[in-house]
Design brief:
This is Receptor L-domain domain-containing protein. The protein has helices spanning 2-24, 67-73, 178-186; strands spanning 32-33, 52-59, 79-87, 102-104, 110-114, 129-131, 133-137, 163-168, 190-194, 205-207, 210-214, 248-255, 271-279, 285-286, 294-295, 305-308, 315-316. By secondary structure, the protein is of the alpha/beta class.
């Protein structure tokens, strides 16, 4: 008996030292949760009055707790150091983490939401910082992220590590908003390794003087072949239908023969959420993209900017375009 106790003592001691350098530097002892799974038994040990919690939270098919019980447990938690995994559940969102503002992980992975068949959105509506690899996949009813405040992918420590983002295999209706994408592309240490295939629809709007245009053409609606052959004389009117003076455009912009006179519509364009194709034109110069900084295409295996059969073209200047 004594021997058993000693072994147990040794193991728990060892575990603490091993797993918790990261925790002990960041949390009060009474705010550290050491259980492996969250269920109706272990939740009693959850430090639900702490605003900063250190824990590896695992919620899965064995979690016999309602969304209300989870909401109650997490209601004061604003900062979480550790990991968070929510998988194989029937919860409809992650709204039970609505107090959470900052999440930081020590190593790779860390923020994983997968195989939650009833989840329609993430719903972590106050999450601002997530210094963890973000993996959201195989949630078949998820149609939106809905993490409107998420904008910081850095650590409180100055140590720089790239954070990877995977968003895949969600509902066929899932779309990413241009507001979300704007934040993602401007976050230097976020690497978007897998992204959904479409942007959400919207109607053109102004926001503090910035004109965001929705150009209702996708690669699919244009039904372009993978090789953009010279057009057969049938004009798509894609470019003619594009609004002028847009600061951002969401959609596929196609410039064809006959559109040459109108190219200065794009003079103000800074961000294109989509693709730019210039084919079979008489253009001699591409000098109308002087403000273009980013082309954020979601079309897999397609170039974001494509020029073909512009036989007079001898000058291309896109001076502000940033790679990555
Ligand atoms: C989710 O719902 C399905 C179907 O009702 C059920 O079989 C499964 O056990 C539920 N899973 C959990 C984790 O409650
Ligand atoms: C990002 O969040 C961390 C942790 O809260 C904070 O220390 C850092 O200052 C934030 N960075 C920016 C750019 O807001
Ligand atoms: C920040 O990073 C340094 C170097 O990795 C480490 O020594 C230090 O403990 C970290 N600080 C915190 C608060 O984690
Ligand atoms: C946008 O609208 C088009 C046409 O109505 C529709 O086919 C498409 O699925 C919509 N996209 C999204 C992401 O809702
Ligand atoms: C896009 O075009 C389709 C068909 O041309 C139309 O049904 C749909 O309402 C348009 N969507 C928007 C957001 O304008």
């Amino acid at each position: 008996m004594l021997e058993n106790k000693l072994i147990f003592f040794f193991i728990s001691c060892f575990f603490k030292i091993d797993a918790s350098e990261f925790f002990s530097k960041r949390c009060e002892n009474n705010c550290i949760f050491t259980e492996e799974f969250l269920n109706s038994k272990t939740i009693k040990a959850f430090p639900s009055s702490c605003s900063t919690v250190c824990a590896d939270i695992k919620i899965d098919q064995n979690t016999d707790l309602s969304e209300e019980q989870l909401t109650e447990a997490f209601k004061t938690m604003k900062v979480l150091y550790g990991t968070l995994q929510v998988s194989n559940t029937n919860y409809t969102s992650g709204k039970f983490f609505k107090s959470l503002e900052v999440m930081e992980c020590e190593g790779i992975g860390g923020f994983t939401w997968s195989h939650n068949g009833e989840m329609t959105e993430m719903g972590l509506s106050n999450l601002i910082t997530c210094f963890c690899d973000i993996e959201i996949y195989s949630n078949s009813k998820m149609i939106r992220l809905n993490m409107p405040k998420l904008k910081n992918f850095s650590s409180s420590n100055s140590t720089i590590r790239q954070v990877e983002m995977i968003i895949s295999n969600l509902s066929p209706e899932f779309c990413i908003t241009i507001q979300e994408m704007q934040v993602f592309i401007s976050s230097k240490n976020l690497y978007m390794s897998r992204m959904p295939d479409k942007y959400c629809n919207f109607t053109t709007y102004f926001d503090s003087g910035v004109k965001h245009c929705f150009h209702n053409y996708t690669f699919k609606t244009l039904s372009l072949p993978s090789e953009y052959t010279p057009s057969n004389g049938l004009k798509t009117n894609n470019f003619k239908n594009l609004e002028s003076d847009c600061d951002t455009i969401c959609g596929v912009v196609l410039i064809e023969g006959g559109d040459e006179e109108m190219v200065h519509k794009l003079d103000k364009l800074q961000i294109l959420y989509g693709m730019l194709l210039i084919r079979v034109t008489e253009l001699t110069a591409v000098d109308f993209l002087s403000n273009l900084e980013y082309v954020a295409s979601l079309e897999a295996d397609q170039p974001a900017v494509y020029l073909k059969s512009n036989k007079n073209l001898n000058h291309i200047a896109i001076p502000r375009l940033k790679s990555n």
